[in-house]
Amino acid sequence: MNNQIVNQKKVNYFSILKTRAILAIIFLIILFAYFFITAPENNQETTTIENPLKPIIQKNTNAQGLVNKNKIIQEGVAAFNSEYIEYILYALGAQELYTSPLGYGNPKLVIYIDGEIYSAEIVDQTVHISQNSITDPDFAMYISKEEIVNALLAQNMQQHLVDAYKSGDIRAEMLAGKAELVTKGYLNLYGEV
To answer: For residues 154 and 193, what is the distance between their CA atoms, to the nearest angstrom?
Structure first.
């Protein structure tokens, strides 16, 4: 009789264990399905823009692959437009700037290019360029069209721009206070450049 009780307890114990294991597996499946179904989608858009000099470079490259750099610079300066600025700003990571959480607004830049004024405002990781001035810019940059074309042709655009700044071919002026610049992400951008 004792053996029957022990065997009955073993059967009940294994039955309970089996039931719990099945419930645990069902619970894990439900949990996995819940997280799989409700997982946030990666809705981040990426912006891919092509170097605006590409058609000019292709046009001025011969069958052997030799490039007429002087001709590209000349044609690049003549065809200059806001796409050149947009390309450089994206390449420098300006889209990573953000609206200040302290109420300073969106990041804004004004760029003086050979007597023309361009402005850039970064809104929701998108660089918006216009050919006019902007109110309350954070930064001002002074650069020539030829220097922009040279930057677009450079193997390492960031290094080219840093070297041009150091040599005085580009001037930059901080117009906003340091606290404002930090809250818009300029410190991160400056650290990379």
So the answer is: 15
* 61 and 33 part of one domain: no
How many folded domains does the chain comprise?
A: 2
Q: Would you say the pTM of this structure is higher than 0.90?
A: no
Would you call 17 exposed, middle or buried from its count of C-beta atoms within 10 A (0-12, 13-18, 19+)?
exposed
Residue 48 lies in a domain: no
82 and 1 co-located in one domain: no
One domain for residues 85 and 130: yes
Q: Specify which residues 171 forms β-bridges with.
A: 142
Cα angle 33, 36, 41 (rounded to 5 degrees) comes to 155
| pLDDT tops 80 at residue 36 | no
Both 87 and 124 in one domain: the answer is yes
Q: Which residues contact 44 (CB under 8 A, 6 or more apart)?
A: none
- Domain of 20? 1-39
First-to-final CA distance of the chain? 85
Q: What is the pLDDT of residues 110-146, one digit of tens each?
A: 999 999 999 999 999 899 999 999 999 999 999 999 9
Percent of the chain with pLDDT over 70: 78
